[in-house]
Specification:
mainly alpha
Length: 159
């Protein structure tokens, strides 16, 4: 049988220190295995929400752009609605990333009506601070009327 030589006190102390360090490293790795996937999952959730908000945002812009097509209407109210939609499109395109970020910060739920309400509120708050929304809408509606009437003057045909 072989005789083993017991380690000296210096070697024993070194083994204890290495064992403690190894234990600490393993514990850190163990806890990191729980925190990193949750951080990744949270990041994936935010990117998925950002994509869904961007989709709803784009859908809302398309609706406003479809309303813009009525700028040649004979009705003054419809022309005003078209001018307002044009201003919305301009504002939304200029502030798209900021608004989507604000929706994420506000933890807005992914419901179409809530996104529309949020965007409308931001739009009207912005122009309320500018205090010239009504004048812009009136000017745009008048501009559309004059351009339309010069091309196709309104008249009632005689039957």
């Amino acid at each position: 049988m072989r005789k083993t030589i017991p380690p000296s006190n210096g070697e024993n102390l070194l083994n204890i220190i290495l064992a403690k360090r190894l234990f600490i490293v393993l514990m850190v790795a163990f806890f990191m295995s729980f925190t990193i996937p949750s951080a990744i999952a949270e990041n994936d959730t935010n990117s998925a929400k950002r994509m869904l908000f961007a989709y709803l945002f784009g859908e809302y812009i398309q609706k406003c752009q479809s309303k813009e097509k009525f700028s040649d209407s004979n009705s003054k109210n419809i022309r005003k609605a078209a001018a307002l939609a044009a201003l919305k499109v301009e504002y939304l395109n200029a502030n798209k990333n900021k608004l989507i970020g604000d929706m994420l910060k506000a933890e807005l739920s992914l419901k179409k009506y809530k996104v529309h309400y949020f965007l409308n509120t931001r739009f009207f708050n912005y122009y309320a601070s500018q205090s010239n929304l009504q004048q812009k809408v009136a000017d745009a509606a008048t501009e559309y009327q004059t351009s339309y009437s010069s091309v196709f003057p309104y008249h009632i045909p005689n039957f």
